[in-house]
UniProtKB/TrEMBL annotation:
Involved in the synthesis of glucuronoxylan hemicellulose in secondary cell walls. It is found in: Golgi apparatus membrane. InterPro entries: Glyco_trans_43, Nucleotide-diphossugar_trans. The lineage of its organism: Eukaryota, Viridiplantae, Streptophyta, Embryophyta, Bryophyta. PANTHER family: GALACTOSYLGALACTOSYLXYLOSYLPROTEIN 3-BETA-GLUCURONOSYLTRANSFERASE 3, GALACTOSYLGALACTOSYLXYLOSYLPROTEIN 3-BETA-GLUCURONOSYLTRANSFERASE BETA-1,3-GLUCURONYLTRANSFERASE. It comes from Sphagnum jensenii. This is Glycosyltransferases. The chain crosses the membrane at residues 99-117. Belongs to the glycosyltransferase 43 family. Its EC number is 2.4.-.-. Keywords: Cell wall biogenesis/degradation, Glycoprotein, Golgi apparatus, Membrane, Signal-anchor, Transferase, Transmembrane, Transmembrane helix.
Length: 446
């Protein structure tokens, strides 16, 4: 028999605020035993029903109202932020509007102060400045700076020049005392020494001797060594061991006449100087000459073009030949030569008897050169005329020359002609591959 449920009235539970989901009502009579069983089942079902107390009702109501409170809070914050931004933008606009007004007021105040400043203020400030300058000066210089009862503008100008000269002297003295020297050192000019060389028996001797001389020259200094055909390993090794700043160049021109070898090698160096715009004094120093250190000191005194005497030993080695300028101080007034075959030259100078400013090669506007053609030595002229044709491209006449040293009375370069017979073989690398035989052996004791 199927179990029947008796529907109880839910009015009592609804009055007390309880909600009990129960089955539908039915009007079937049952036995007392079944009635007792149905009552037990109803009690168990009542315990399992969901009970909503007043506290849970309040919580559920709070959860329902929470989204509304968040929405209200967001609206209030957004409205407040919009109000703040509007206030800031208005304050910025007002600040920009006030800026031109403040600027104009400051400008007007400055102009008024400049116009209305009394004269005694400026005179007192200048006197205070002069007083502070006098405190820094030494008593030896201040004694010579006294200007009293100046009546004319010429006297005022002379007084100002004298004062400026004393101030310059004081500045130089102060700079020297600061570093412990009595004279202010000026920067040296760059010396660019060009040396053409080629393989021969005395090449190592010449280059080594010249390198030892150049190592004694104060910097800045650049040694340009030019070889024919290719860079020899022997020359490259020697240059690395000198400790001198150098550039090893190569002349790759095919020559039919070896007498023009030095001309083309020097042209390679001139093109290198012009291309890199080296600023200094260019000097052609052959490797077989003998030089004094005084020569390199005089080179740094040259402004445009300098020249001096050169001593040469004649090929017969029986007499000495002097060639170069005759000077009155630094002014060239004539020339001296002992070779009759060269009297037709315009300038009687040896290749090692002159030097010039390198900017003449690459800055023609500075020296007012009439031609923009590159300055090079010519191989089309007669032997012995390369020097004069080259100098004619650098200067117009003797008025643009400087005799070094003043008076041109010292010989600072010697050309001695120490070459041996041409074609003399020399060992590769300037070292002996096999030991020499002892043609005088030591006598052994018997």
């Amino acid at each position: 028999m199927a179990a029947l449920r008796r529907t109880l009235s839910s009015s009592k539970f609804e009055q007390e605020g309880f909600i009990v989901p129960c089955a539908s009502s039915c009007a079937i009579r049952v036995s007392p035993l079944q009635q007792q069983q149905q009552q037990q089942q109803q009690q168990q079902h009542q315990q399992s029903c969901v009970v909503l107390s007043p506290v849970s009702a309040v919580v559920s109501q709070g959860f329902a109202l929470f989204p509304l409170s968040l929405l209200r809070l967001g609206i209030n914050n957004s409205s407040q932020g919009m109000a703040d931004r509007a206030g800031k933008s208005s304050s910025r606009r007002s600040a920009w509007k006030r800026f031109p007004i403040v600027l104009g007021i400051c400008f007007i105040v400055g102009v008024l102060l400049g116009l209305l400043t009394p004269d005694n203020w400026t005179s007192s400030s200048s006197s205070d400045t002069a007083k502070s300058g006098q405190d820094l000066a030494s008593s030896d210089f201040i004694e010579g700076i006294k200007v009293e009862n100046v009546a004319s503008s010429g006297e005022v100008a002379n007084a100002l020049e004298e004062t400026n000269s004393h101030i310059n002297d004081m500045c130089k003295l102060a700079a020297g005392l600061q570093y412990g020297v009595t004279e202010v050192l000026e920067p040296h000019k760059l010396l660019i020494v060009v040396t053409p060389t080629y393989n021969r028996a005395f090449q190592a001797y010449y280059l080594t001797r010249l390198a030892h001389t150049l190592k004694l020259v104060p910097p800045p200094f650049l040694w340009i060594v030019v070889e024919m055909g290719a860079q020899s390993l022997e020359t490259a090794s020697l240059l690395r061991q000198t400790g001198i700043m150098y550039r090893h160049l190569v002349c790759e021109k095919n020559l039919t006449n070896i007498k023009d070898r030095g001309t083309h090698q020097r042209n390679v160096a001139l093109a290198h100087i012009e291309q890199h715009q080296l600023d200094g004094i260019v000097y052609f120093a052959d490797d077989d000459n003998v030089y004094t250190l005084e020569l390199f000191e005089e080179l740094r005194q040259i402004r445009r073009f300098g020249t001096w005497l050169v001593g040469m030993l004649a090929h017969s080695k029986s007499r000495t030949v002097l060639e170069g300028p005759v000077c009155d101080g630094e002014k060239v007034i004539g020339w001296h030569t002992n070779e009759k075959s060269k009297r037709l030259r315009r300038f009687h100078v040896d290749m090692s008897g002159f030097a010039f400013n390198s900017t003449i090669l690459w800055d023609p506007d500075r020296w007012h050169r009439p031609s923009l053609d590159p300055i090079r030595q010519l191989d089309t002229v007669k032997e012995g005329f390369q020097e004069t044709t080259f100098i004619e491209q650098l200067v117009a006449d003797e008025s643009q020359m400087e005799g070094r040293p003043p008076g041109c009375s010292k010989v600072m370069v010697w050309h001695l002609h120490l070459e041996t017979v041409s074609g003399l073989p020399y060992p590769s690398g300037w070292t002996m591959n096999s030991p020499l035989s002892a043609n005088l052996p030591l006598q052994q004791d018997a």
